[in-house]
Amino acid sequence: MQQSDRLSTSRSAAVPATADLIRLDTGSALRRVKSPPVNIPISLPLLPRWDELAAWVRQIDRSRVYTNRGPLCSELERRLESHFLGRQTQATSVCLTASGTSGLIASLLALDLEPGSLCVLPSWTSVATASAVVAAGLIPYLIDVDVDSWALDPARVDAELGQMPSRPCAVIPVSPFGAPVDVTVWREFSRNSGIAVVIDAAAGFDSVTPSDIPVVVSLYATEPLGVGEGGFVICTDPGFIERIREVTNFGFTSTRIVHHMGLNAKLSEYHAAIGLAQLQKWRDTRRTWLRVASTYRAAFAEYPDIQCLPGYGKSWTSSTAVFRFIDRSASEVAAKLDRYKVESRRWWQRGVNYHPAFADAACGDLTNTNRLADETLALPCYLTLRDTAIKSVVKAVTSVMASE
Ligand SMILES: Cc1ncc(COP(=O)(O)O)c(C=O)c1O
After folding, report:
1. Gap from CA of 126 to ligand 1 centroid (Å)
2. What is the pTM of this model?
């Protein structure tokens, strides 16, 4: 398993210019900062402007098709298939969904799993993953993540199978904050165990590797490619994607007969219009996400007690900038950043098991989840975040770190 990155680029490129820091450059004495000069929110989504959408919306006006997998949805699915085909040789199929959560529910339903059986998921994820498991009629079983990759390790799932109350029917590995998930090891796990795998890569638009394992991506407004509310399921098995189309359309098959329960989880044509406009400028958008990520990465390079996920800001990027403050309390760091008017967030709070709705979920030992919950914090990350603002955030963080 790869180590969390130690951010080992040279610090000289990273040290903020004093002029950019204005009055934040007051050393570690927080009390000396009387009126913080910055007010930097954690997130500031940016969807296409009207002029970028107009041509697509006019098509909706003309066609008067507003949903039910209309022409814009079909066009966006086709373009997403070509986009991801660039990463591999095998053709891939995409089905758009109303959200990432409904894409997860639909994927579990499409697998025709035994109702009431166990579904393994990491405790270190969004409550959305666990909610999808319950909505699909399965029982969540929480497993701890690896402390360096922040993700489920198939070897650990394998090792814990014997102590679960019954054999699970499925596992949902989760991409932490957009990090790549190794599909090869999960395919092997699935082949050897006979347990189905669905990957939750909600924030993973930039890191998806299509395979015969279904991957679910969110298109929520703050995700790397956002449409407001939306998502998609991607898989190299066209038959599976056809099942997703049925499940997300009340279960209707081509004969209009429903054999298995379904949902209404279709994406509207208006959201598809936003997706088409977003996809057209993805290269520029990606470059900007990468600039934000690599600037943070370089800036924290010489702080061995500040870590990010392996490859973040190098081989992949995302719309959340989550860092681990080794042996520090993320809540305390957050409270001190507040005094600099820098917003931060414990993105997944204390993990799924912390929420009363899932407090009774069966689980193994959750030491790493609790550690990551204590030590990780998301810093401001959005497309219009300027370098000067990132430098102010970095200066605030390093001042807080130096203050004890
Ligand atoms: C890991 C994870 N899975 C699923 C979701 C749900 O995605 P959506 O908001 O599109 O339903 C989210 C986002 O909230 C998430 O972070």
Report:
1. 6
2. 0.91
